[in-house]
Amino acid sequence: MIKELLKAFEDLVYLERYPLLNGYLQKIDPRIKLFATAILIIVIVSTLKITPLLLLLITIISFTIVSKIPLKNFLIRVTIFIPIFAGIITLPLPFITPGLILTSFSIAGFSLNLTYEGVYKMILFTFRVWLSIAYLILLILTTKFTNMLYAMRRLKFPQIFIMLTSITYRFIFTFINESYRMILARESRITSKQRRLDIMRDLGNIIGTLFIRAYERGERVYFAMVSRGYSGEIKSINKLKIHVRDVIFLILTILICAVTILLNYLMVI
Predict the structure, then answer these.
(1) Given its phi and psi angles, is residue 81 left (phi above 0), alpha (psi -120 to 50 degrees) or beta?
(2) What is the DSSP string of 78-133?
(3) Torsion angles phi and psi, residue 48, rounded to 5
(4) If 0-12 CB within 10 Å is exposed, 13-18 middle and 19+ buried, where does residue 144 land?
């Protein structure tokens, strides 16, 4: 079962096939996309009403379709993990927020009141987290990782942050494959059903071994980079140019954000 989860996780993070599609966002300069995504997320987290956020929802669905990314797969990828976690951590809000009482009930002698304002805050927070994650994932799905790093460098991101991001991305697949081989080797030597305690002990041994191998491989990679002239700066042969379509995309994004902010002040909910 563990190795199936590892393969599913590998399929989940394997994103390099989508940037190669001939879609709309794939043709946009990564610097423009990164800047536009940052603006959109700032607008999302500063919006205090649900109705204006529906415009951003329609926008991201439209961008997903014109970028030739399967909408069903995209929605599944966006909805798992973080948005669900956001919904869970906001569960107390409907009961601790004062306001219009929708219903009341008792649990173990405690009286709980479900309020309209609390439910609204819970939905708003979860929706904002969902949209923020969706725009970030859409950025990743439509941009080659090397171009993303180059765009971050051109936008003056901290060099250490770019380096850590690069190493993390490249090593994650190596560690997943290493874990898969170790678990596969373990299961190939098992002929009978194990107790839960034995499974936990073997899993601890695998994690410890993987940590040691990760440390040793990191040392070898660092020394190999230093021997090849690495001085702390990432160099790239990519030469990105801003075209008319990039400017149009940025203007469109700013207009959408402006309309969202305007609706935030005009709409009641």
Answers:
(1) left
(2) HHTTHHHHHHHHTTTHHHHS-S-EEEEEEETTEEEEEEHHHHHHHHHHHHHHHHHH
(3) -105, 10
(4) middle
Handedness of CA 88, 50, 132, 125 (dihedral sign): negative
Give dist(CA 98, CA 115) in Å, integer: 7
pTM: 0.78
Whether residue 234 is predicted with pLDDT greater than 60 in this model: the reply is: yes
> Which phi and psi (to 5°) does residue 70 adopt?
-55, 120
Q: What is the pLDDT of residues 37-48, one digit of tens each?
A: 999 999 999 988
Is the CB of residue 154 less than 8 Å from the CB of residue 99?
Answer: no
Torsion angles phi and psi, residue 112, rounded to 5:
-120, 135
d(C-alpha 265, C-alpha 154), whole Å: 35
